[in-house]
């Protein structure tokens, strides 16, 4: 009976591969993705007997370098805000406001119901998110590490006024058919009760951003998720402590905030030291 030969691959081969990839500028997150993919392939190869052992077992994964976020500058925020004001309490405008003024994720915004919004106390209880699984399903919000991201976010009087206008508009439209229902989605359809599909929201925002040529600090057209980045970046720039930013963003581990917004934190520290230099000179 013929048996297929098993291959022996040494870890030095993969060190050479990583060196080759670095030469061609495949560094940071891209290199880490390559490492994770190859590790999974080799794990399967060992399991089915094609490879004697997994050479990556003795090799550390490459460090992921933080990628600069493509946030809006304060001047661009003012420009975007003016446009959103002119749009009125439409689902797209309200969703963008929530991302920009609370740092909520797209799935959390689309899953937000009026019963989780307290306008008098100016609080949003983030308890649900729409996650993709053969369509979209209601789930608990989770951070990038998969940890529970439920939280309460306080908001200011400006957003309270914007949300009140949205609620009044929905009441008027829904009231033609039935009594008001607090379980309706904030950016959903007031007649059918359907939620705003997160993918559709992303596409509609992309069309608007391209039409207005809204570009972020990295020179790219601003994606919907970049509004969340803008909230965090401006909070840090205005000396909001990192623990508070992490809590508002739903990062259970503050290291996530430190990694994602490392550049913004460095700029904030530099500004703080300039202020101290002026005070102490």
Account of the 3D structure:
This protein has 281 residues and is mainly alpha-helical. It is 52% helix and 6% strand. The chain has helices spanning 11-23, 29-47, 74-87, 91-102, 106-111, 157-174, 198-212, 224-237, 242-249, 254-260, 262-280, and strands at 117-118, 123-126, 129-132, 136-139, 151-154. Strand 1 and strand 2 form a beta hairpin. 28% of the residues are buried. Residues 23-27 have low confidence and may be disordered.
Summarize the structure.
With 281 residues, this protein is mostly helical. The protein has 11 helices and 5 strands.
* Total count of helical runs of at least 4 residues: 11
- Please provide the count of β strands: 5
Low-confidence stretches: 23-27
In terms of DSSP E residues, the strand content is 5-15%
Report, as a whole number of angstroms, the end-to-end distance: 85 Å
Q: Globular, elongated, flat, extended or rod-shaped: what is the shape?
A: globular
Order of helices and strands: HHHHHEEEEEHHHHHH
Main sheet record = 3 strands, antiparallel
| Strand line-up of the largest beta sheet | 1-2-5
Mean pLDDT, to the nearest integer, reads 83
The percentage helix is 40-55%
Radius of gyration: 24 Å
User: By helix and strand content, what is the structural category?
Assistant: mainly alpha
């Amino acid at each position: 009976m013929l048996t297929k030969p098993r291959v022996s691959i040494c870890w030095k081969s993969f060190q050479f591969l990583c060196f080759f990839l670095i030469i061609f500028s495949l560094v940071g997150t891209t290199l880490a993705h390559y490492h994770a993919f190859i590790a999974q392939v080799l794990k399967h190869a060992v399991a089915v007997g094609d490879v004697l052992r997994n050479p990556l077992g003795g090799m550390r994964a490459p460090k992921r370098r933080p990628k600069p976020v493509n946030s809006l500058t304060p001047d661009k925020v003012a420009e975007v805000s003016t446009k959103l004001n002119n749009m009125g309490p439409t689902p797209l405008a309200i969703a963008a406001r929530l991302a920009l003024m609370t740092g909520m994720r797209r799935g959390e915004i689309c899953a937000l119901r009026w019963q989780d919004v307290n306008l008098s106390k100016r609080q949003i209880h983030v308890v649900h998110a729409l996650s993709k699984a053969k369509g979209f399903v209601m789930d608990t919000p989770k951070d990038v590490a998969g940890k529970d991201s439920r939280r309460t976010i306080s908001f200011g009087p400006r957003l309270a006024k914007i949300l009140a206008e949205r609620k009044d508009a929905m009441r008027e439209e829904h009231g033609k058919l039935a009594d008001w229902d607090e379980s309706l989605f904030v950016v959903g359809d007031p007649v059918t009760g359907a939620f705003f599909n997160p993918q559709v929201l992303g596409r509609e925002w992309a069309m608007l951003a391209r039409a207005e040529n809204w570009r972020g600090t990295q020179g790219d057209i601003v994606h919907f998720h970049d509004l969340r980045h803008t909230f965090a970046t401006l909070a840090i720039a205005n000396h909001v402590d990192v623990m508070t930013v992490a809590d508002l963003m739903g990062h259970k581990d503050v290291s996530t905030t430190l990694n994602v917004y490392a550049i913004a934190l460095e700029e904030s520290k530099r500004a703080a030291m300039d202020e101290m230099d002026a005070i102490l000179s």
